[in-house]
Amino acid sequence: MEPVSNQFLSDYRAKLVSAEQAAGLIPDGAKVALSIGAATPPALLHALAERARQGAARDIRFYYMLLGAVAGRTIFDPELVDRLIPMSFFHNAVERGVDKVLGEQHLVDFLPAHFSQIPRAMVEHVGVDTLITTVSPMDADGYFSFGTNADYAIPVARKPGIRMILEVNQHMPRVRGDCMVHISQVAALVEHHQPLLQASPAPLSDVDRQIGQIIAGLVDDGACLQMGIGALPDAVCAGLEHHRNLGIHTELLSPGMAQLVRRGVVDNSAKQIHTGKTIFAFALGDAALYDLIHDNPDAEAWPVDYVNHPATICRNDRVVSVNATTQVDFHGACNSEFVGGRQFSGTGGQVDFVRGAYLSRGGKSIIACHSTAARGTVSRITPQLTGPVTTGRADVHIIVTEYGWADMKGKSVAQRAQALIGLAHPDFREELARQAHAMKLEA
């Protein structure tokens, strides 16, 4: 890297403060956009939590998705959520932990939105006034890379008048693409160098591997991949090791996808846009993933309102989108975010890619699940959903369980019901057939 000019070094030093000083720049009543996963800034969160404990921070709302455990230990300590208020676009263990401690009267509030719409929701509808995130060290021209996370952070950073506080971390990879901000745009800088959050892949079960192999068989050489989060997409990646000339255009870049790049399975040569490049909105995984994207001209991070826009997705041919769900009803509609009567995860980018993949020439949108839940006592194929519709029946394309796959397109509701019963666990098929008969859904 070229040496930084004296002008930018002077600006940098003038804006460099302690985490405590930076936290003091966020006023009561602020609406703060907080970055996902590896870009969540731990030093700033610790300082904000300490201010709240001392009674010096009140009524600060944080808008975000998919935070690491550090948030639960700091700003979302259950004792502080009356002062530092979580406003989640996508729940995970952090929100479920707060809910468990505080009970039914204090459930973390949830904002339904497709991932592609979150930047506009934050800027236009919420009106966030502050952005805090982790970035890579400044380059010779005074720019910081947002590294693992362009997603909603870059669109928020471009909002006029935004108060931007950056935590500079030498471990954050310097990533190319549309993910840079200049020192002149920054209100304050904090230096804090610690290894990034790593998300270990969930162990794969035999059922995961079965589903992974079924889906891998639906992927042609030269296809362009999007994979969601969790064990099932990881299992699909494991099943693709003998494919060739695959591409990646995805919201989440995961270790499984990075492994396909390293093995040469992915070379992005068959893509129609960003040919030769792996495109993602955010990356979350292990050190090997972060090493892969660091200063790599063939890997680029772009804002999620571009990456996840169906009009962008469909510009590549043969897009294969793979996402998981928790329930599928007889009509083919999917609940992918609600479990046990509570918000469990979120809408995310599932519908963005369901629609974008189907619009792609030769594209396939795949939604997968185990046939059962609760240790085999509950069927995930069900007459009616017990939660909100994440992906509607008119959008669903291919459904996969360990018992096979079924194409919903071109099927009547009755035909869908019968096809889905065939994907259910054998222990539930007789009862499901009786329910379909009572609902007059016999093909």
From TrEMBL:
Acetyl-CoA hydrolase/transferase C-terminal domain span: 285-436
Keyword terms of this UniProt record: Hydrolase, Transferase
Entry keyword Transferase: yes
GO BP annotation list: acetate metabolic process
Entries under Pfam families matching the protein: AcetylCoA_hyd_C (PF13336), AcetylCoA_hydro (PF02550)
MF annotations from Gene Ontology: acetate CoA-transferase activity; hydrolase activity
Domain Acetyl-CoA hydrolase/transferase N-terminal: 11-193
Family matches, as InterPro entries: AcetylCoA_hyd_C, AcetylCoA_hyd_C_sf, ActCoA_hydro, ActCoA_hydro_N, NagB/RpiA_transferase-like
Keyword Ligase: no
Family membership noted in the UniProt record: Belongs to the acetyl-CoA hydrolase/transferase family.
Protein name, per record: Acetyl-CoA hydrolase/transferase family protein
Species whose genome carries this gene: Novosphingobium umbonatum
Taxonomic classification: Bacteria, Pseudomonadati, Pseudomonadota, Alphaproteobacteria, Sphingomonadales
